[in-house]
Amino acid sequence: MTGASLPLLGTTPQEHGGEFDLGEMLAHHILNSNTYELPLVGAVRLPQWDPVAIAGLQVDLSPTKHVVLLLLAAAITCVTILAASRTVVAQGVDRAPKGLANAIEAIVVFLRDDLCKEYIGHGYQRFVPLILTMFFFILAMNLLGLVPWGGSATGNLAVTAALALVTFLVTEVSGFFKLGPKGYLKTIFFAPPGTEGAVKYLMMALMTPVEILGKVVKPFALAMRLFANMTAGHLLIFSLLGFIFFFGDLALGRWFIAGGSYLFVSGILVLELLIAMIQAYIFALLSAVFIGLMQHEH
Predict the structure, then answer these.
(1) Region of residue 99 (phi > 0: left; psi between -120 and 50: alpha; otherwise: beta)
(2) Do 239 and 164 share a structural domain?
(3) Domain assignment of residue 286, given as a range
């Protein structure tokens, strides 16, 4: 979505004395917009730039809420990893680091040995930086959706699709160079081993569309899985909070409904914290699996 086509979602109807609108509240907190909420300031309109012509297309590069969250997640990832690495260097490689650096090192070692090495196999070292970056970057974006005045950029399909496209390009390009042109073509024009003659070409005609579809479905599944899980969690949280406004006028049930919504939302927030970590891990895991499948001809 371009910045010019986005609705201005910086204010809600209740701020202007209107009736409560659950749909507006959901859109305000989940959809992309040209404004960003800041503490003590309120909605701040982001700068709008003129569209730029790229390959004959008018592309709007104006920053949006999710662009700000992407940059913030990238900054948090860089600062956290650099701080942890400096702590490790300062304490010496022969000693186990303490605090946050120890947790980061444990995650890095786990992803390197039990994920990259296990699923990519020989030559996995080249892909470790990519898998680690994917995990920590997605984790930072997911966690930003659980803090006040934050938001989850992974709730935007364009963001998850871009991440999946990176995995797709790395998988296919690295597979092409590893297998060579002839070996790579076999991953598209496939015939089961042992088939000969007319049967071979018949199977190839049947399996080739399946193989091409499989290459497209893999990144699509990556993008949709992350997007759907993060969006569904936030929809559920705000829907439960909406009960307070819908049924809050009931004299007998006011505190009961508010307390019940609060308890349910608190429990779901704890679950969302776990889901944020799991979804980052699954994205990294499947990326490693897809890369590994293309690295070995057998």
Answers:
(1) left
(2) yes
(3) 64-295
